[in-house]
Design a protein that fits this description.
The chain has 230 residues and is of the alpha+beta class. The protein folds into 2 domains: 118 residues, Diaminopimelate Epimerase, Chain A, domain 1, CATH 3.10.310.10; 93 residues, Diaminopimelate Epimerase, Chain A, domain 1 (Roll), CATH 3.10.310. The chain is built from 4 helices and 16 strands. A hairpin with a 2-residue loop joins strand 7 and strand 8. The chain starts with 9 loop residues before the first strand and ends with a strand.
Length: 230
């Protein structure tokens, strides 16, 4: 079933990976599964238009499950939806320790203004990575430079600190440019085998911790934004 013009589904919105003052961050649409029964979730995500929209089930025993959609495809895992949904459930008084996504169980924790998730790097989409020697050159890139595929461009802004500057272009996922990409941050962390402090897009901030057992922790700040009615 498609989306009726008058179905009136409310989509909650949060911004994920903001800076310390609540600026920037990647918008995430959150739909309660009970509110969109019988609705085509992929069509819903396309109409909402954010880089990702999730459909979340009611938590039970500090555990829930969700499906993740870009405007074009469903994903088995994505970082910014996992962090954003974990924080949103905490905000609403339903904290969870695990979010089950098609790729597997994502551990969640919220403390001291930060939300952290734990996932495996192989759950991330297959990005093509491009390292640049100059972060200034990264700033000059245009989404039109990447007409197809899934690309994560990065460069060290302070290698000693593990600080990198990144941008992500994924027309294959219906995302010309993403403001903050958790799965790509996880994959880059695994490739470099070290924790990172990432500034992406206009100024979003992502933090990662690498573990040699194949798991990566991804963290960031989240703020509530205005809901939309579709």
């Amino acid at each position: 079933m498609g989306i009726p013009e008058s179905d009136g589904a409310q989509i909650e919105v949060v911004r994920v990976f903001t800076d310390a003052t609540g600026r920037f961050g990647n918008p995430l649409g959150i739909a309660r599964a009970a509110d969109v029964e019988g609705v085509d979730h992929q069509a819903l995500a396309a109409r909402v238009g954010y880089s990702e929209t999730v459909v979340v089930r009611e938590p039970e025993n500090e555990r829930t499950s969700m499906r993740i959609y870009t405007p074009a495809v469903e994903l088995p895992f994505a970082g910014h939806p996992s962090v954003g949904t974990g924080w949103w459930l905490f905000l609403k008084g339903h904290p969870v320790s695990v979010i089950d996504v098609p790729a597997g169980p994502v551990d969640v924790s919220v403390s001291d203004g930060m939300t952290w998730v734990r996932a495996r790097s192989e759950w991330a989409p297959a990005f093509t990575f491009h390292q640049f020697e100059s972060v200034e050159e990264i700033a000059t890139l245009d989404p039109a430079d990447f007409p197809e595929g899934k690309h994560y461009v990065w460069g060290w802004s302070d290698e000693a600190r593990g600080a990198v500057r990144t941008r992500m272009f994924a027309p294959a996922m219906g995302i010309p440019e993403d403001e903050a990409t958790g799965a790509a941050a996880i994959a880059l962390t695994a490739n470099l085998r070290r924790g990172l402090y990432i500034t992406q897009g206009e100024g979003s901030q992502l933090f990662t911790e690498w573990d040699s057992d194949g798991w990566v922790r991804l963290g960031g700040r989240v703020v509530e934004d205005h809901p939309v009615v579709i």
